[in-house]
Amino acid sequence: MNERNAMAALADRWDIHPDHFWLRGHSPEKIIQFEEKLGMWAVFGYPEVVGILGDPATFSSDLARRFLPDADEALFDGNLAQTDPPEHRKLRKLAAHAFTPKVVASLEPRIKEITHELLDAVDNPDRIEMVADLANPLAVIVIAELLGVPSGDRVLFKKWAKEMFESANEFSLADNEELERDLKDRTEQAGHMNDYLREHVVDRRRTPRDDLLSKLVHAQIDGERLTDTQVINFAGLLLFAGHVTTAMLLGNTVLCLDAHPGQTRQLRDDRSGMTGVIEESLRFLSPFATSYRVTNTEVEIAGQKVGANQMIKVWLSAANRDERQFTDPHTFDVRRDPNPHIGFGRGIHFCLGAPLARTEGRIALDIMLDRFAGLAVDPDQPPSFMPTPDFVGVRSLGLLT
After folding, report:
1. Of 14, 191, 232, 285, which one's alpha carbon is 20 to 30 angstroms from that of 380?
2. 269-294: per-residue pLDDT in tens?
């Protein structure tokens, strides 16, 4: 069985979302097509997706104006992912200080310590549940400690993340009633998180600490401080997007290695290949499968005219399998070089926490290889994936050690 057919069989066995046809070795019929059931355009090609992500003047990230025109602006004020220049540039510059190479490097000893503590706490030394025992708690603890909120509250974080990120409902503009219900549910869950974060923001205004939340509260942009709402929305994005990204990256990488034992043996013998493993995993099973934009003007994409104020769904994970960009795109090759994947996006909205996610993934995987000589997916419990098409990420992964 060739590589393409082997991975297609695995995608079916793992019950990966049917919309992810490229994970079954198929190519899109068209580079761009209008999805009637969603009421938006879907773009699958690598150069087209990169072009969209790199042109915020034409393709806006302010999605609320399209599907929530009457919404309270406070819902998204300070949310980096929903902001266009020049506001985005100011917020990004402020947050970038928290993820500099120096800051991320300083976290490495703590990441190693947390990883060992979590693995030591596993009840059964012969088996671990990758997501619940390690990936999720590691990512949550690291980002929570960086922000300065109690990592012991990770049960709450997990609950909110599940309710906001793991909905099986597709984001659709075609059914207004369903869209309103879905957005209402997500807004209510976000409200619980915002109330939680507001208490910490108020506390930091009174009593600053040496944490990122205090820095956000007391930082100034053009002589003005962020409002409480801006800090809350900013911190909420970092808290959840940060931990979800790392958890999916780590779980997906282990799954890729399990499916390719020869490359796993090479990595065990030579850990210098770890970077290549992480990067190829991000391309091969891109955690964030999609991103969304709204057209500011009429534009042409791959020969197709798209009107103004149209929603565009760009498929990052499909673009990472584009044969025009990648040789043998359906082959998992840890020696792939160059590997210009867009697993963390591209352009001004490139994932802010990418350096931290890569570092956590590298450290945790290295420790697991040291501790577990026979690491393998439990054949009696196949992995389960997030039900939404917007993510490609395991939410459960039983491993034999």
Report:
1. 285
2. 999 999 999 999 999 999 999 999 99
Strand ranges (E), 92-238: 127-129, 220-221, 224-225
Q: Cα 231–80–154 angle (5° rounding)? A: 60
CA 271, CA 283: separation in Å to the nearest integer? 20
Give the separation between CA 313 and CA 63, rounded to whole angstroms.
11
Spatial contact of 187 and 75, defined as CB atoms under 8 Å apart? yes
| Counts of helices then strands in the chain (DSSP H, E) | 15, 14
Phi-psi region of 309 (alpha: psi -120 to 50; beta: other; left: phi over 0): left
Residue 276 neighbours by CB distance under 10 Å: 18
The Cα 143–Cα 148 span in angstroms is 8
Indicate the pairing of strand 311-315 with strand 40-43.
Answer: parallel
CATH architecture of 3-400: Orthogonal Bundle (1.10)
Element (H, E) at 142: helix 136-147
What residues of the chain score a pLDDT lower than 50? 168
Strand partners, 377: 399
List pLDDT tens digits, range 32-56. Answer: 999 998 899 999 999 999 999 999 9
Q: Counting every residue, how long is the chain?
A: 401
d(CA 338, CA 103): 27
pLDDT tens string 306-343:
999 999 999 999 999 999 999 999 999 999 999 999 99
**Cα→Cα distances 241→25, 235, 237, 350, 376, Å:** 28, 10, 6, 12, 28
